[in-house]
Structures are given as structure tokens and as C-alpha cells.
Amino acid sequence: MQQYQGHADEGFGAVADAFARNYADFPELGSAVTVFAGGRKVVELWGGVADERTGRPWEAGTVVPVFSCAKGLVAVCAHLLAQQGRLDLDAPVSRYWPEFAQHGKEDVTCRMVLGHRAGIPALDAVLGFEEIAAWAPVVRAIEEQKPLWEPGTTYEYHGHVLGFLVGEVIRRITGLTPGAFFRQEIGDPLGLDAWIGLPAAELHRLARLVEAEGRRPMPGPEHLLTRIVTMNGALVFPGLDVPHGWNDPELHAIELPGAGAVASASGLAGLYAAAVTGIEGGRDGGRERLLSPAIVTDVVREVSSGAGFLGFDMGARWGSGVLLESPAFRPMLGARSFGNDGAGGQFAFGDDEFGIGFAYVANRMIGHGDARANHLVDAVRTCLGA
């Protein structure tokens, strides 16, 4: 079996076994898994290669693009503001962003956006990379956008729009973009290796993505799904080794809060552990959790499921900005589990009933049918007797 480094505490050896088996059962290249239990890091494992071109090994501090796991960072920020009484998720977005209330969006709430029900999964405006990087042009395009359906009546994945829309609400409330707010309020105080907008000083830690053979091709450029994922072609997907592609440091330097986070397994697991239990060495050395039990109850209330606007039913269940436990899509631990996954196979979640923060990240993008993270979650479940 593949050699790995790190540790798994007594009682969590099954996670180490599953991590090793992933290298035998899948075309794994480099990866890491971290598990917190009761605020303490009980598993931290890594192995393989971070850069296939040079043979640079994966290390404890290696970070990787985690795609839509970014939504977890944004969602925790939004719920933290709700807990502080600064954001009402069921109030119209226009309470915080008056210019948003145009073209049938007057009654759209942040809850609708977080649940992918706002009717604006993609934008009509065709923006270039520089405009997306500048933030304000995306905000203007969202203001001018007409919903594709009556908001609240159905749902479809708001891939990038969710991040920009909720991110602008965060900016209107706090004066900080979502990436800056996350670092100020959560990332820096807790020492988490997770960013929306990777600092240049961290680039040396970045793993290089590789696409596995057999990934399903995207539909044509006019298809709504392709428009959602690529922002009308401005962000090629998977588009690894192209200008502004997912191996381009220039892409990672900008804020793409819907799908552009960069993180380590420990950074993502630490975020969810901090949210549900607090973590050792947390704020001022304490263990205070970021989100109260009442807020987590609100987070895990189902908002969307079943077939959406495009008619697909992948088995996913959505709370407010997060995936919920769904054996048909992303098995977690139970009714209090919530998290997000990413296009490369990455997956992270927390659960305050079991006191768990979990994350798996990798640099080989396997695509549909990727069960690497699921095997590790199954092992955690075995260890807990859940």
C-alpha cells in the first residue's frame, strides 16, 4: 500500500487504512485527510506527490484548489453574521444592498441564494477575467440580472453567483470582501490554512492539479450548466493548464467566493470543527465554537432537494449554503452534518452531534463516481460506531 505520513490516534486507525487503500483503488496522485474530534486533531495524514512534473512530495502544509468547498467558508461567514444579529437570512437582500432590488429580485432573500433558489444561477452579462477579478462589474451584472424563474419556486445550482451575491452582502455589512472577512474573523485568529484569494507568500505550498482520464465533458457553451460553471466561458473548466486556468496563480490570487478557495485538509477540517465544537488553541487559546447549536439547527434545515430547474436529481440535499447528509450523494454522519464538496473530489463537513470536523483534499480530479472521500467518511463512521 501507499506510504503516507502523519498520525491517526488510537481508535481512528480505520481512517489510516482507508487512506492507504485509496492509493490502491484509485489513480490517486497526492492527497490529505484530517479529522477533528471534540476539538482535537485525531487524524492528520498526507501522501503522494504535490507536483507531478517535479516530483515534489505532498507535505503537511500543502494546499490545493478546493473549488466549491469555498461555499462552506462563505456560508460559515454568513451564519456567523446572523448569529451576531447583523444579518437576517430571511430578509430581502435589498435591506443590505438596495441596488439589488431590480427586475423581479425585490423579494429575494439570502436564504434563497444560499439554497440555490434565487433564480439567478448564471448571469446574462459576459464578463472578462479582469472584470471578474475587479469584483464591481460582477456586482453590477447581478443587479441588472432578471431571474430565470420566480424566486423561491424551484432551485438550480448557483455555482459562482452564490459566492459573489452573498459575498457582496457580507461586504455591505462589514466593509470587507468575503475573503478578507473570513481571514479577519476566522482564518487568522484560528490559524487556518484556507483562503479565498491566495496570498503570493503561500504559492510555494500549492499543489498542481491533474485531470484523471475519463471525466465527462461539459455540455456546449450555451448550455446553462456550462454557463454556471464557467461564468459564460470566462473561467474554463476544468481548464487546468491554460491562462487563468485552475493551475494559474493569477486565478488563485483573485476572490472567487463561490468556487475559488485554496486550502489544506487541516484548514478545512479546522473550519468545520471550529464551527461545531471549537478547536484546541482557538480564539485566545479557548475552545468556544463559532456557531451555536441554534444556528447549526438553522444551517441544517433543508431548503432544496430533488429535481431542479434543469430536471436533474443527483440526490443532493441543500441547507443554507451547505450540503446536508445524503447517502445518495454525499454520505456524512447524520442529521446534524453539513459541508461542501469540490470539483476535484475534495470534501469537508462538520457535525456537532458527533463533534467531528472532517476534510479530504487531493490534486487528481477524478470526476463522476469519485468515492475517495466517501470511503474515508465511512471509516470515520466505523470509528465512531455511528
* Largest beta-sheet characterization: 8 strands, antiparallel
Number of helices: 12
Distance, first to last CA: 27 Å
Fraction of residues in helices? 25-40%
The share of residues in extended strands comes to 15-25%
Structural class: alpha+beta
Number of E-state strands? 15
Sum up the overall morphology in one term: globular
Give Rg in angstroms: 19 Å
Low-confidence stretches: none
H/E element sequence: EHEEEEHHHHHHEEHHEHHEEEEEEEH
Mean pLDDT: 95
Written description of the protein model:
It is a single chain. This protein has 386 residues and is an alpha+beta fold. Helix content is 31%, strand content 16%. The protein has helices at residues 13-25, 70-83, 110-114, 129-134, 136-144, 161-174, 178-190, 224-230, 249-253, 265-276, 293-299, 372-384; strands at residues 5-8, 30-37, 40-51, 56-57, 64-67, 194-196, 210-211, 261-263, 304-305, 317-318, 323-324, 337-341, 347-351, 356-362, 364-365. The strands form 4 sheets. Strands 1, 2, 3, 4, 11, 12, 13 and 14 form an 8-stranded antiparallel beta sheet that branches. A 3-stranded antiparallel beta sheet has the order 5-8-6. A hairpin with a 4-residue loop joins strand 13 (347-351) and strand 14. Helix 1 runs antiparallel to helix 12 and helix 2 (70-83) runs parallel beside helix 6 (161-174). The chain is globular.
